[in-house]
Design a protein that fits this description.
This protein is mainly β and about 230 residues long. The chain has helices spanning about 15-20, 70, 215-230, and strands spanning about 25-40, 45-55, 65, 75-80, 85-95, 100-105, 130-135, 145-155, 165-170, 185, 190-200, 210-215.
Length: about 230
């Protein structure tokens, strides 16, 4: 009798984290909050609101993939790697309908940094029950790994920004919290199969139901966003 062997041996969780942690970033953007005023030197100034999220390295040219809602009102953001290195980046492409955005690091110092882009896999073959890993910055806690399974695929995710739902999202029970948005959802080979985007919760924090944009949508849209800055939907 022969023995069954897996075609691609699974990597352990610590190995996946070590392999990918340098390619996951924290994104901070400052956006004006016009409802709140502070007085500086006797003048009323709008108080800035800091938006916090995650992202991941897409290629060697300094492109970073994240959620549109993380950078919605910003053209300039800061990208911080797990070792603390921070670079300015500009938002070069946005698609609010799929909640996707692409940044480009503008600092020449990035070219000297040794960072491997994450491999983006094909998400069409995902099955319910597969183990997945989320890496990001929940509540600003950088380099946080959580794990769970694919709870379901093909979910319709309401999008409050546009009023149109996002199709074919991945439902997962990997803990996702504010700050995880834009970070990668990985398979057990350390490949991106989705981008953590939203949670269903009555309290605003993790309740066991998270959603990720599928990697196939990322593969389809990001090259267009890099080239044109926007993506046309029917």
């Amino acid at each position: 009798t022969g023995s069954l062997q897996s075609s691609s041996p699974q990597i352990s969780l610590p190995e996946i984290f070590k392999k990918t942690e340098n390619s996951v970033v924290q994104i901070t953007s400052t956006r004006p909050n016009t409802n709140s005023l502070v007085i500086i030197n006797g003048k009323q100034m709008p108080q800035n609101d800091i938006a916090l999220g995650s992202g991941f390295v897409y290629d060697q040219q300094g492109h970073i993939v994240t959620n549109y809602h993380v950078v919605a009102d910003s053209n300039q953001v800061d990208v911080t790697f797990v070792d603390g290195d921070t670079f300015p980046a500009k938002v070069i492409g946005k698609d609010p309908y799929s909640d996707l955005a692409i940044l480009q690091i503008t600092d020449n110092g990035f070219s000297q940094k040794s960072v491997s882009p994450l491999k983006v896999a094909n998400s069409t073959s995902l099955e319910v029950g597969e183990q997945v890993i989320a890496i990001g910055n929940p509540f600003g806690l950088s380099g946080t790994l959580t794990t769970g399974v694919v709870s379901q695929v093909g979910r319709l995710l309401p999008n409050d920004i546009t009023g149109y739902s996002i199709a074919n999202t991945i439902q997962t029970d990997a803990p996702i919290n504010p700050g995880n948005s834009g970070g990668p959802l990985l398979n057990m080979n350390g490949e991106v199969i989705g981008m953590n985007t939203a949670i269903f919760s009555a309290t605003g924090v993790y309740s066991g139901v998270g959603f990720a944009i599928p990697s196939n949508m990322i593969l389809k849209e990001i090259p267009v966003l890099i080239e044109k800055g926007s993506y046309s939907h029917p």
